[in-house]
């Protein structure tokens, strides 16, 4: 059943000034999922002003931090009560399987909100070491109005990575969800209202990047930009933010290596290599899309890995038995097909997959494995954002490290070995924001996440994320009874 959504500005549901709407689609069927008000520049202006009014009124930023935390925790409790509903809304629109949303993405989202609810009254400055005639201390203050642009692959979770720390610190926020997947975030606003979050603290302006997104990231009333998405869009946002010298955090693309040494637990490595590339249809920024396998175990690993990929059940994302749902769109499906064709043209071998699931409507692609891949091929250097594993041989530790780091990206990496010294050497040598040892693609609300090189900068999650949503103020108190008489006789 098609649902209609409006913009959410200053606690009210409102039409776009232009009166325009757009449609979202169920990627598993291609059918219309929702009709959504389309925000433009004037709507972004309204949302930013609403966030500014809420911030300057002091109701939120000067609320006792513990009370802010309790309201955020109340929102988390209400999310738990509606987790099945939110999971279905999200799966229907973004293509994640219902098992992925209900048992992984939504619980992780709620955990993030609970983590920062507990951190709200722990944003602290420092008393500095000073001579006895003075007192120096710092305080952490909210930045102001946060502009957040979030992608379509994990709509609620990646939005919460920004909402939770921003609000815990006392900021207000304007969010622009991806035009493919605004529904679950708009549903979330009803929950935040029920929890008692004041009007204007959170505002949502669904629309398209060229209109709503550009207006938001270039708006002079925004004090900081938080973005998750492609590296190309990240470059555009940096240019836009530079006009007003806005601070920004960017969590961008990746081409992450998953390195399997000969002494690894092979069964575990196979299972998690499959999870690392096929979870969420491979539409994950940290996906382990380059799988490096040591020569001596290559054949054994590949036999088991191909068998694992072929066993994955692809189909209706709302069926609890489905293990991999559809890609987000026809355009994304064609992008994946183009990359696989390019890999084959460059000399890679197709072991399994490499085709659409012809028996179904929607945008389904089969789990794919390409071998005989060299690190110079496009499929090894460019982000595909789909269920395509490029498998590369390596000889030894030095060879693995050199090949793994030979990319413009540096978001994440995995290492499989039972040699503890080797594991730590590899962790130090890999140029990435996260290194998983003997696992892959797991997250923790308390652990910082972000990239290096062209995978972006700044860290989301963990205590470290609060640094991105606060600024330090230094206070100097002169304790001398008399002022310095610099110009005295």
What does the model show?
The chain is of the alpha/beta class. It folds into two domains: about 5-250 and about 455-475, Aldehyde Dehydrogenase, Chain A, domain 1; about 255-435, Aldehyde Dehydrogenase, Chain A, domain 2 (3-Layer(aba) Sandwich), CATH 3.40.309.10. The protein has 14 helices and 22 strands. Strands 14-15-16-13-12-18-19 form a seven-stranded mixed β-sheet, with helices on both faces. A six-stranded mixed β-sheet has the order 9-8-7-10-11-21, sandwiched between helices. Strands 1-5-4 form a three-stranded mixed β-sheet, with no helix packed on it. A hairpin with a 2-residue loop joins strand 2 and strand 3. Helix 2 (about 65-80) crosses helix 6. The longest helix has 22 residues, at about 100-120. The protein is globular, with a radius of gyration of 24 Å. It starts with a strand and ends in an 11-residue tail after the last strand.
């Amino acid at each position: 059943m098609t649902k209609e959504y409006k913009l959410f500005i200053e606690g009210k549901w409102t039409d776009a000034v232009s009166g325009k709407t757009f449609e979202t689609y169920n990627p598993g069927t291609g059918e219309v999922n929702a009709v959504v008000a389309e925000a433009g520049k004037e709507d972004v202006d309204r949302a930013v002003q609403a966030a500014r009014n809420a911030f300057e009124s002091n109701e939120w930023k000067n609320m006792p931090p513990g009370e802010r935390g309790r309201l955020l925790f109340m929102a988390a409790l209400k999310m738990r009560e509606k987790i099945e509903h939110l999971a279905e809304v999200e799966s229907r629109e973004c293509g994640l399987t219902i098992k992925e949303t209900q048992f992984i993405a939504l619980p992780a989202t709620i955990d993030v909100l609970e983590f920062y609810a507990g951190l709200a009254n722990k944003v602290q400055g420092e008393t500095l070491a000073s001579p006895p005639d003075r007192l120096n201390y710092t305080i952490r203050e909210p930045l102001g109005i946060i502009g957040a642009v979030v992608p379509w692959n994990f709509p609620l979770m990646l939005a919460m990575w920004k909402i939770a720390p921003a609000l815990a610190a006392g900021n207000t926020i304007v969010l622009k969800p991806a035009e493919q997947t605004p529904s679950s975030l708009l549903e979330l606003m009803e929950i935040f209202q029920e929890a008692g979050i004041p009007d204007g603290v959170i505002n949502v302006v669904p629309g398209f990047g060229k209109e709503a997104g550009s207006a938001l990231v270039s708006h002079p009333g925004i004090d900081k930009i938080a973005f998750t998405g492609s590296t190309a869009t990240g470059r555009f946002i940096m240019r836009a933010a530079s006009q007003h010298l806005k601070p920004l955090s960017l969590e961008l693309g990746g081409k992450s290596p998953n390195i399997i040494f000969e002494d690894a637990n092979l069964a575990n490595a196979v299972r998690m290599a499959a999870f690392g590339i096929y979870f969420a249809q491979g539409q994950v920024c940290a996906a382990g899309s380059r799988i490096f396998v040591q020569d001596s175990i290559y054949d054994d690993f590949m036999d088991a890995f191909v068998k694992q990929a072929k066993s994955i059940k692809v189909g209706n994302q709302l069926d609890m038995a489905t293990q991999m749902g559809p890609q987000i769109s026809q355009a994304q499906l064609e992008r994946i097909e183009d990359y696989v064709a390019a890999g084959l043209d460059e000399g890679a071998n197709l072991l399994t997959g490499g085709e659409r699931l012809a028996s179904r409507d929607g945008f389904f692609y089969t789990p794919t494995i390409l071998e005989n891949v060299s690190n110079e091929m496009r499929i090894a250097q460019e982000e595909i954002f789909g269920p395509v594993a490029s498998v590369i041989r390596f000889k030894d530790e030095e060879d693995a490290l050199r090949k793994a780091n030979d990319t413009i990206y540096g978001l994440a990496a995995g290492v499989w070995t039972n040699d503890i010294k080797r594991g730590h050497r590899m962790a130090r040598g890999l140029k990435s924001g996260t290194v998983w040892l003997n696992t892959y693609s797991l997250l923790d609300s308390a652990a910082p996440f972000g990239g290096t090189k062209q995978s972006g900068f700044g860290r989301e999650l963990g205590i470290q994320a609060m640094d991105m949503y606060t600024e330090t103020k230094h206070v100097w108190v002169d304790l001398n009874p008399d002022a310095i008489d610099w110009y005295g006789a």
